[in-house]
What does this fold into?
Amino acid sequence: MSTPLYLAPRLEPRLASLLDEAGFLHELLHALGSPLNVVLPDGIADNVERFKEVYDRHRLAGNIYFAHKANRSSALVRRLAATRAHIDIASLGELQHAMGCGFAPDRIMATGPKNPEFLWLCARSGVTVNVDSADELAQLAALVEKHRLPQARVLLRLSDFDSTGVTVLSRRSRFGTPATAATGLLDLLDKHRESLDLVGVAYHLDTIGPAEKATAFEGCIRVLNECAARGFRPRAVDIGGGFGVDYLAEGAQWEAYTSELTSAVLGRRTPLTWQGHGYGLRNDAGTVRGALGLYPAHRPVSGPRYFDELLAAQGQSLGRPLATLLLENLYDLHVEPGRALVDQCGVALARVLEVRDTPSGETFVRLEMNASDVSLEEHGVLMDPVLVRRPGNGGGSGNDVGTAVGTGGPVGVYLIGNLCLEADFITRRMVYLPERPQAGDLLAFANTAGYFMDFSADHALHQPVARKVAAYQDGADWRWCLDENYWPNHCTGEDC
Ligand SMILES: *Cc1c(COP(=O)(O)O)cnc(C)c1O
It folds into this structure.
């Protein structure tokens, strides 16, 4: 076999410790079936603290709103409710869930476009509404006035920031009101001063580039100035989410992998993907064309560190670091991290059903899960699963049916799912494992709490959707309960 190209996941101590507990994990799978999602609620509390440290370092005030959509878990949201964090919800169901997990309305903000029922419950319960459009703002005012509800707190979500005179282009967004149309929103607010309280302006950009975010930030400061000139008293800038996660342990592996992928696309080495899939790259008569459509899985500046660097960055037009602009104006800063707040907070487990060699020399590992149960591929994140041997497996005996191959040494395999569908590959790339797996082993997809474990899962072919459990440490021991049975007061490991 050619040199293995590993993409080892970044594992912090808590997650690494869980993955070391082979007996515990196998027992869980035995009881609850495959696939199985495990969340680590204590991790979300650690991540909140890391974001708080950045606020403290820059002497800023404001709220951390966890973007609930990253994971449906109750345990994570209940554990979060026990911290100082707030929550960002984007549907009626998420709002009900957050309230049921312990978030009072003053710690909840509703983002995204809203239907009438959702908007009603927001207004009735008094959660902050991050308004997506002028229409929505008018609807909210009408609701408050018609039903004599308390004044609604609103933020204005803006997009398409005008960057005339600067080199940074702001990408178009389907959400929010174009910043150039902000005046229209202020006219509406003016008409409804009794029913609406403008508390701030917001953006959320699904991008990695800090320059683009700084442009949006400066755009928000300009709109806040306009608000002040018109007698409004908004106090906050909400810079949304998109702080990112560093998924890989070693940058060198990422570099090696992407450069070998390029060689493979050019036909200069053995294929690294099923049927020569190029992840956006293609061979145009010996030259690579296209762009790699992958998440930058090795991303050392991510999460709280990305936040820190963004605050120290200077926008192109106002000439001062973003943190300084906030301090000068005494504005609060709100953030809405999703993925970054559940970094290291979960793992998706699947049982190996079969390991099979094809006549053309490939090795298939068939898993008791499918591509929608761990949607790493859909999100463009390339990261290896961790092989968790069934106690007693391994040792070169090669006990899987139909093969006499031993287990020693690295192997490149294709991970296939449990749907009768040619396209059901967990990932289209060949995955290198340190040893050949055997039926009954587990593959653990680490760090999948943010979007990968339950966002896309469904019941295709009546296959089961993964159950979810919360795991936590009680002294040196790992314990677990069903996700829906987790409550912080009896599952923090102290007073169980
Ligand atoms: C999805 C979303 C987020 C979270 O984005 P991440 O990339 O997970 O941090 C925050 N705010 C809004 C409005 C969103 O739609």
